[in-house]
Prior knowledge:
This protein is α/β, with parallel strands linked by helices and 282 residues long. It is built from 11 helices and 10 strands. The strands form 2 sheets. The protein has an 8-stranded parallel sheet. It has a two-stranded antiparallel ribbon with strand order 1-2. 45% of the residues are buried. InterPro entries: AKR, Aldo/ket_reductase_CS, NAD(P)_OxRdtase_dom_sf, NADP_OxRdtase_dom.
Amino acid sequence: MQTVTLNNGVEMPILGFGVYQIPAEQTEQAVGDALAAGYRSLDTAAAYRNEEAVGRAIKSSGIPREDLFVTTKVWVSDAGEDRARRAFDASLRRLGLDHLDLYLIHQPYGDVYGSWRAMEGLHREGLIRAIGVSNFYPDRLVDLIDHNEITPAVNQVETHPFHQRTADQDLMRQRGVQMESWGPFAEGRNNLFTHPVLVRIATAHGKSVAQVVLRWLIQRDVVVIPKSVRAERMAENLDVFGFALTDDQMTAIAALDTGASLFFDHRDPVMVSRLGNSVLDG
């Protein structure tokens, strides 16, 4: 598996398996299938409500812990130094692990500075190998970097052919932050899987549109975590290292960028209030 080197020297697989929107009752089987297919990087979150199922799949897989890269995230309602520390302990307990490879602030709202102080402490204690953020636009990312000791290792953001974030990626590179994509297939919006440009490129390589999109992200040095509950699709999504897109094909995909989210804008006041005040029960 190809890896990227984070700003603290930790190696992270460039392709992993995400479990967002997989129901808890299906997650253990899905993660087990993903691990059997060859995935070694897993991405979950407290807000996904399936950390325990991920943990059971890890345990039953028999794969040595050092061979896995496990990410989870702290939710807005657990922001703040004390709350984030308790949320981390709860996530670790649900996962059945003694440390995390990557811990992210899930949304850029609430007391992110308190959360970051807690995460810096957990990192110093060796309980987290790397710490990062998710859904931070450049202004919030730079502000966090400039006023804290540790620079986030990763920023996980919406990234797909219709919202490519090239300028954001340039800023992250300058600041030593690894870009990671969520929603690489845009959940099929804008007819992604039948888009003529993507279909033409896929046909030229004898690959699927999904494989082309993953390959496009990998060639941009973007970490990606596609989700699937189908074992055959998991295997297909892993099979993206035996071909390369040409410069012309990369340029053709670049032309698909709309420069806007297909989901929601994290700077929209209504969304900020909705997400910033949402609470995880239990």
